[in-house]
Amino acid sequence: MKVMANINFKGGVGKTTITWLLAKLVSENGKKVLVVDADAQMSLTIALSIDEKTGNYVEGFGEWYQQHKESNKTLLDALDRYDQYATGKAKHFDFSINTNFIYKVSENLLFIPSVTDLYWMELELFNPESVKGFVQALLGKIHHSQFKPDYVFFDCPPSFTALSYSILSNCSSILVPTNPDVFAATGLRIMIEGLISRIQPWPNPHVIVFMNKAGYRSDIGLFRETKTFMSFVEQAANELSSDRLEITFLSESYIPMRASIRKAISFGGFPNEFKPYINKLWASISRIID
Amino acid sequence: MEIDNKRLIKELKNIYKSIGIIIELFEENNNKSQKGKLIQKPPAASREELKEEWKALQNRYDGSLDAEKMIDEFVASKSKNYLIAFIKANDLPIQAKESKTKIANGIKGLLKVGSTITGNKNV
Q1: Strand-pair category, A173-178 with A2-6
Q2: What are the pLDDT digits (tens) for A190-227?
Q3: Of B118, B121, B122, B123, which to mutate for an interface test with A (greatest number of A Cβ within 10 Å)?
Q4: What ipTM was reported for this prediction?
Q5: Using CB atoms, which residue from A189, A227, A233 is nearest to B91?
Q6: pLDDT tens across B36-89, in order?
Q7: Using the beta-carbon criterion (under 8 Å), do B93 and A239 form an inter-chain contact?
Q8: Contact residues on chain A for B118, CB-CB shorter than 8 A
Q9: pLDDT tens track for A173-195
Q10: Is the pLDDT of residue A20 over 80?
């Protein structure tokens, strides 16, 4: 089971969209994929559950999500149960993995949504150090459940939270989408420096950086501005890369800026013009992680 | 005889004048073709050297006034032809047709952005 965290401390770089498109592609290629919305802003959960036209829940998901919360099977409930175990209030991490916890989008695509309570509860209730092993314990349970995914994608919040701390401490690779602008590109260095100083010890994750929202036109190729930013980001990645934390910048696997990306997330949606780019991105990522 | 000499001198003067015009035209054409050669002449530096030069500027840039001056001097010392090749070789988002001052400002801006992204310790 390969575990990937998609993160950048700069919001709006396309973490959620890329997480979803990669997961969808890999699941369509015959692998079982679990996507976890670990961001309390719930972008992925909202995008997947709400019908854009009607504003209602997508058929089937609404009832399931209600049941998910009522049966105390949310990510926050799991974190709470682990915290009780980690702080000695419970003997075991007592949280069973069932269909109330994981939603089946399709045969190969599984989903754990987020909850808004995660936003505040996590800050107030959990000590990052005590719940550091949460993700590893949860993934262990999922691995031995009926679901047994080949890949797990975490859509992380754009900040260090107790949950993201646990995810980053237990994933095999960290995907970092960036954009051709100074804020997003600078975010990479700030984040990596933060990871090096805050997340220890490392299970040696491989950090994979790539350009999203690249300025591109089929007749002229990548815009010069995008190329310049890619060059700066590559330099930053090379300078920050070390034996302890290997960083690879995928200079050939960029995702172009297109208006249709807005329609990328909805049950069943996958703009065709993105397929070659997501395919290429996944091929590059696979070469590193497999 | 005297008339013949006068006519001869007149004809020689005409020939001389014609030769002068031909020489002027020749010189003019020659200058034009030389200028043409200058425009088409490739820059002295290769693409790799131009890329190395950009790297060197990035390494030397530390955000100080001296660094800004270094960029101004770099741009001032290069021909427009060279700067066009430099911008093209490094895919810099700078309008090569602009004045040298604007090109220098463009380079300074990129170096500042690059320093922020890469965390250039010099800055």
Answers
A1: parallel
A2: 888 888 877 765 567 899 999 999 999 989 999 999 99
A3: B118
A4: 0.72
A5: A227
A6: 554 545 557 889 999 999 999 998 998 888 999 999 999 999 999 999 999 999
A7: no
A8: 189, 232, 235-236, 239
A9: 999 999 998 888 888 888 888 88
A10: yes
What pTM, to 2 d.p., does this model score?
A: 0.81
Q: With contacts defined as CB-CB under 8 Å, which chain A residues touch B117?
A: 182, 185-186, 188-189, 229, 232-233, 235-236
Q: What angle do CA B90, B96, B102 make, to 5 degrees?
A: 105
How would you write A145-170 as a 3-class SS string?
CCCCCCEEEEECCCCCCHHHHHHHHC
Instruction: Transcribe A48-100 into DSSP letters.
Output: HHB-TTT-SBPTTHHHHHHHHHHTT-SHHHHHHHHHHHHTTSSSS------TT
Cβ within 8 Å, pair A228-B118: no
- What number of C-beta contacts closer than 8 Å exist between A and B? 38
- What is the band of A61 on the pLDDT scale with cuts at 50, 70, 90? confident
